[in-house]
Design goal:
Distance between the termini: 42 Å
Helix content: over 70%
Number of helices: 19
Order of helices and strands: HHHHHHHHHHHHHHHHHEEHH
Radius of gyration: 22 Å
Strand order of the largest sheet: 1-2
């Protein structure tokens, strides 16, 4: 058989390109994750660069959280129904368009619109995980989803120092042009390498369910992210929270009665799925505290008594070892999940994260010890982010992989939003005056570490209550087909 007519490999890709499917998907995940943190080093300069206010500048981060939270489960469901590769390509087009929009303007309104498009592309990561489950042979599934899931943390750790270097040495539009170029490269690679999954979910797309989920999420996340500025007891904050709760109740009732729901609440209510999503929220909280606090803490002036007066670049580089550890540990996590089950892997991860924050609590005066503590937390995050999709996929049918992974990624985003609100409240209220400026006290940072450690321990408790039995299989289902469960390593399914 000649190369031109060679039969496809089990992945559905041409034999000469099949081995690149996972690296390409992982690269897409890293690029998307980098977009989430790209503007953080730029935020203090945005008001002067765009003639806007600090409040408007903050929306460059808030809007990506909102659109990412809304579109991740929605596009996961669309991918299940109409083709995951097709939706993956659409997400990358949106990412590229948003990057070009940001690169071509200095208007704050247009920048916010561009960042909204970039945030919507967060669905690339759960879509990539779903493609891996559908396309790869069982022995490659665990290590591949471990790497794909870890890209969310890897991109965040790599994006901060790279963006800081660009902000200090180049025109700030450069980083958006670079992100647009990376988006185009992703598109070309996916078109060339990644096959379309044949797995489809029958039924109609749930338009009302999508609108209800969107309204509830926007209300909830707006209240969480803006509550510190508006006031937690203000009419606007309480109104959004109350409205989100009411909408969620009606939405849930509707989803239970519709034939093809946006989110299958009966599946989501299973202990194996519900507790995994609760653990994801808590892990997202614990992970994000590490990213938020590390850079700010080392940049605090030496006059505070604990600050190191580091530059933006140095503060960003403090997170780089953590990102590298996530790359190194993703295959280790897969081996733990394969040998002992993803439940064990997640329990180990939550414990490591809690230990990392204990280290940080007692070593907050030395740059190298701060980096060491942050790296330990990142190491735990790598194992956790690798184990979470494995837990989700053993508990849901293959026809719901995209939606289920999207919901799990959503829970991580909600955890990050809650963490941002808590960290902002603590650092803005536990303060003192140092050299004529108001700064957080050391106790404020230590309190954040304790809260984050508590979140990691709570994730550990949720993990320990996860059922340990084999995932249920529908009697009539055929592995790898719609309605059944995909072939997974036996060690993973049995724990």
């Amino acid at each position: 058989m000649t190369p031109a007519t060679a039969a496809p490999t089990p992945t559905g890709a041409h034999p000469s390109r099949a081995r690149f499917v996972v690296p390409v998907l992982a690269f897409c995940g890293v690029v998307v994750a980098v977009m989430q943190t790209l503007v953080v080093p730029l935020l203090p300069h945005v008001p002067a660069l765009t003639g806007s206010t600090p409040g408007a500048a903050g929306w460059l981060v808030t809007i990506t959280l909102l659109t990412g939270a809304v579109f991740t489960p929605v596009l996961g469901r669309v991918g299940d129904m109409y083709g995951k590769r097709r939706v993956l390509l659409a997400s990358l087009w949106v990412l590229t368009a948003g990057s070009v929009l940001c690169a071509a303007t200095s208007d704050i309104g247009v920048l916010i619109a561009g960042r909204a498009l970039q945030g919507a592309a967060l669905a690339v990561i759960p879509l990539g995980i779903s493609i891996i489950r559908d396309e790869l042979p069982p022995e490659r599934v665990l290590p591949s989803i471990a790497l794909m899931s870890s890209t969310l943390g890897i991109g965040a750790a790599v994006g901060l120092p790279v963006a800081a270097v660009v902000v200090e040495n180049f025109d700030w539009h450069t980083m958006f042009w670079a992100s647009a170029a990376l988006g185009l490269l992703d598109l070309v690679l996916v078109l060339w390498i990644v096959p379309e999954s044949p797995v489809r979910t029958p039924g109609r797309f749930d338009v009302l369910g999508t609108l209800g989920l969107t309204a509830a999420l926007v209300g909830l996340l707006l209240a969480i992210t803006q509550g510190a500025d508006w006031g937690w007891t203000s009419a606007r904050t309480l109104g959004l929270l109350g409205g989100a709760l009411v909408i969620a109740l009606f939405w849930g009732r509707y989803e239970l009665r519709t034939a093809s729901p946006m989110v299958d609440l009966r599946v989501s209510a299973r202990p194996a799925v519900l507790l995994t999503n609760i653990a994801a929220l808590l892990i997202g909280f614990a992970f994000y505290a590490n990213s938020l606090v590390t850079a700010q803490m080392v940049q605090e002036p030496k006059a505070t008594g604990y600050g190191l007066g580091a530059s933006i670049v140095v503060s960003g580089l403090c997170l780089l070892p953590g990102g590298l550890s996530m790359v190194a540990l993703s295959p280790v996590s897969a081996k733990i999940s394969a040998a002992y089950g993803p439940k064990t892997a997640l329990a180990i991860a939550a414990s490591i994260m809690a230990v990392g924050y204990v280290i940080r609590f007692f070593t907050s005066h030395s740059l190298w010890l701060i980096v060491a503590g942050a790296t330990v937390v990142s190491a735990g995050t790598a194992i956790a982010y690798s184990a979470l999709p494995a837990l989700v996929m053993r508990a849901v049918p293959v026809s719901e992989t995209g939606a289920a992974n999207g919901l799990n990624t959503l829970m991580r985003s909600v955890g990050q939003a809650c963490c941002s609100a808590v960290v902002t409240a603590v650092l803005s209220h536990v303060t003192f005056v140092a050299s004529g400026r108001v700064a957080p006290t050391l106790h404020a940072y230590l309190l954040v570490f304790l809260v984050a450690a508590g979140a990691a321990l709570a994730a550990l408790v949720a993990t320990l209550f996860l059922p340990s039995g084999r995932a249920p299989r529908p009697a009539a289902a055929v592995p790898g087909t719609v309605g059944g469960t995909s072939p997974m390593p036996a060690a993973q399914e049995g724990r």
